[in-house]
Design brief:
alpha/beta; Undecaprenyl pyrophosphate synthetase; 6 strands; 8 helices; globular; single chain; binds farnesyl diphosphate
């Protein structure tokens, strides 16, 4: 007789994972919180609350799988155009989550970084972001990048301005500007580009997220709304990623992103 195992689904999918080809950096557009709340006859805010508990599970599971960096889109530069009640709810939620979770994240050896222009946030919230980064900065096992007031185009304009300033001051010559120099001025300069982008809720766009960094990332889109995304859904995304033939514009499949610079465009 077959015994019923409550974790059967996860176990089955885990067996299909190639542990030697786990994506090292996953970026996530956590979409569908609002719709999930409304579909349940609840508020959009319920969806955001549930979204936080899903994120906690996904962080823990990612770390367990050997993923090194998770970069999540928590608040875009465009999210300010939402009704002020929702914007305020989200800002309060960030503060609540940081107060409640930062010690646990630290105990799990997770480094937390905030990526984006933090200047429009209240001084209190900015201090929470800085405090969270300071508490966790020594952790090496896993990094959680939280993109807050982040916009890809804004990031590229920021880099262009810095390069223009350096050129005018004579620190560099315009002809010296190359990809490496450009990359070194991105907000993500400490990390290798994402291997995999996951977007939930079925939308097929990247919504101003990591425009430079996603150039060669594999993209996985699922109809599942973020509040229903679970460990099993992450495994499905990784299995799908592992079935891809990553060529970085070249001909042969390569498993290591660092090889991309040696391959030709195509
Ligand atoms: C997208 O769903 C989700 C957001 C804009 C917010 C996500 C934020 C969290 C889960 C909190 C993370 C907090 C920390 C501190 C890491 P949506 O509202 O766009 O959903 P919709 O497409 O259904 O409207």
């Amino acid at each position: 007789m077959k015994l019923k195992n409550p974790t059967n689904k996860i176990t089955d999918l885990s067996l299909k994972i190639d542990k030697l080809r786990i994506p090292q950096h996953i970026a996530v557009i956590m979409d569908g919180n609002g719709r999930w709340g409304v579909n349940k006859g609840l508020s959009r805010s319920h969806g955001h609350n549930k979204g936080v508990s899903v994120l906690k599970n996904i962080i823990k599971f990612s770390k367990k799988l050997g993923i090194k960096v998770l970069t999540v889109y928590a608040f875009s530069t465009e999210n300010w155009t939402r009704p002020s009640e929702e914007v305020n709810f989200l800002l309060n939620l960030f503060e609540k989550v940081l107060n409640k979770e930062i010690n646990e994240l630290n105990n799990e050896f997770i480094k937390v970084k905030f990526i984006g222009d933090l200047s429009p946030f209240s001084e209190n919230l900015r201090n929470k972001f800085i405090e969270a980064e300071n508490i966790t900065h020594h952790n090496e096992q896993f990094t959680l990048n939280v993109c807050t007031n982040y916009g890809g185009r804004q990031e590229l304009v920021k880099v262009a301005k810095e390069l223009a300033r350096k050129s005018i001051s004579g620190e560099i010559k315009p002809d010296q500007i190359n990809e490496e120099m450009f990359e070194s001025l991105l907000l993500t300069s400490d990390f290798q580009d994402p291997d995999l982008l996951i977007r939930t809720s079925g939308e097929k766009r990247i919504s101003n997220f990591l425009l430079w960094q996603l150039a060669y990332s594999e993209i996985y889109i699922t109809d599942v709304l973020w509040p229903e995304f679970d460990e099993n859904e992450l495994l499905k995304a990784i299995i799908d990623y592992q079935s891809r033939n990553r060529r970085f514009g070249g001909i042969k499949s390569v498993s290591n992103q660092s090889l991309k610079s040696s391959l030709s465009f195509g």
